[in-house]
């Protein structure tokens, strides 16, 4: 249940911080997870990004302030982080369907986004196949890109990178280079201290780094390795959802701060029998 407790701590941090700006890094510290893990888990479980949840909650509380009729619109706008009354009014209308001025009138109809409440539901009737693997540190070789994780921007950019490497021959070169225990191409998510990640498309490889590629050392870890069966990208997305919403809350394992990765084979990505893996570091 450590994962559930982490999400509860994160929500408490956000609610205590409102109406002031909420730092994803600080929210992740409160939850004792990395910013990248937090963003992924939050969006999987709620369907919105951390930033979107914060925006909705701030506009909900701002509407409550206006409905009392004692505060000026400009003061409420600045209080909730908007630089101008115009930008506040635009965001306010988008959520509530009325202007801030109309919200001050008696009987105004407002849209309320309540504080999230974490509840554990009975799931897991479908089997998940995984193994626990101990590995010393190992090297991977490939290409690296930096992506912002603010509002889950990486979710749109990472597929573009895969499209690029699959079309320009990079993936074929990586399959040819592979000489490690993991026989496939890896999508490695490496956390950074700011609101970004380094994302690698790489393969396990020992030897001189070829031109155009870089080297990353994956540290020694205990890994939970999950089997993924089915076509991409749906099968991978569904597997992540079940890991986050079912396996982590019910297992005795916790995420650690090292890199997680996905393993892809060279088979047909549209095949219903496609085999892939998700590796997450645990303790």
**Shape assignment:** elongated
Please list the strands of the largest sheet in the order they lie side by side: 1-6-8-7-3-4-2-5
> What is the typical, i.e. mean, pLDDT?
89
Percent in helix? 40-55%
Query: Beta-strand level of the residues, as a percent range?
Result: 15-25%
Which architecture of the largest domain does the CATH hierarchy give at level 2? Alpha-Beta Barrel
Instruction: Report on the biggest sheet.
Output: 8 strands, antiparallel
Number of helices: 10
H/E topology pattern: HHHHHHHEEHHEEEEHEE
Which structural category fits the helices and strands? alpha+beta
Oligomer: single chain
| pLDDT < 50 runs, ≥5 residues | none
Keywords: DNA-binding, Transcription, Transcription regulation
InterPro entries: AraC_E-bd, GyrI-like, Homeodomain-like_sf, HTH_AraC, HTH_AraC-typ_CS, MarA-like, Reg_factor_effector_dom_sf, Tscrpt_reg_AraC-type_HTH
Protein name: AraC family transcriptional regulator
GO molecular function, one term: DNA-binding transcription factor activity
Overview of the molecule:
- The protein has helices at 2-17, 24-31, 35-46, 50-67, 73-79, 85-96, 100-103, 154-167, 170-177, 234-250; strands at 130-135, 138-148, 185-191, 196-204, 214-218, 221-229, 260-264, 275-282.
- By secondary structure, the chain is α+β, with helices and mostly antiparallel strands.
- It folds into 2 domains: 2-103, Homeodomain-like (Arc Repressor Mutant, subunit A, Orthogonal Bundle); 130-282, Multidrug-efflux Transporter 1 Regulator Bmrr, Chain A, CATH 3.20.80.
- The chain has an 8-stranded antiparallel beta sheet with strand order 1-6-8-7-3-4-2-5.
- α1 packs across α2 (24-31), α2 (24-31) packs across α3 (35-46) and α5 (73-79) crosses α6 (85-96).
- The longest helix is centred in the N-terminal third of the chain and has 18 residues, at 50-67.
- Keywords: DNA-binding, Transcription, Transcription regulation.
- Residues 8-106 form the HTH araC/xylS-type domain.
- This is AraC family transcriptional regulator.
- GO terms for molecular function: DNA-binding transcription factor activity; sequence-specific DNA binding.
């Amino acid at each position: 249940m450590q994962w559930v407790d982490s999400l509860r701590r994160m929500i408490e941090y956000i609610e205590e911080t409102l109406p002031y700006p909420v730092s994803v890094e600080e929210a992740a510290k409160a939850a004792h997870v990395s910013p990248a893990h937090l963003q992924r888990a939050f969006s999987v479980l709620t369907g919105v990004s951390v930033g979107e949840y914060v925006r909705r909650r701030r506009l909900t509380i701002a509407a409550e302030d206006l409905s009392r009729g004692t505060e000026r619109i400009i003061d409420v706008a600045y209080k909730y982080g908007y630089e101008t009354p115009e930008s506040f009014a635009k965001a306010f209308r988008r959520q509530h369907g009325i202007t801030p001025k109309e919200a001050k009138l008696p009987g105004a109809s407002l849209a309320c986004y309540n504080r999230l409440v974490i509840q554990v539901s009975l799931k897991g009737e479908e089997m998940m196949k995984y193994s626990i693997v101990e590995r010393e540190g190992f090297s991977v070789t490939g290409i690296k890109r930096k992506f912002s994780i603010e509002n889950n921007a990486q979710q749109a950019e990472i597929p573009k990178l895969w499209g690029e490497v699959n079309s320009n021959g990079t993936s074929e070169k990586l399959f040819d280079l592979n000489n490690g225990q993991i026989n496939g191409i890896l999508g490695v998510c490496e956390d950074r201290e700011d609101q970004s990640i380094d994302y690698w498309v790489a393969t396990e490889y020992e030897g001189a780094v070829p031109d155009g590629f870089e080297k990353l050392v994956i540290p020694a870890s205990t890994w939970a390795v999950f089997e993924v069966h089915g076509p991409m990208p749906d099968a991978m997305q569904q597997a992540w959802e079940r890991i986050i919403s079912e396996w982590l809350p019910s297992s005795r394992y916790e995420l650690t701060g090292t890199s997680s990765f996905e393993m892809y084979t060279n088979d047909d990505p549209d095949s219903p029998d496609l085999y892939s893996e998700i590796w997450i570091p645990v303790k």
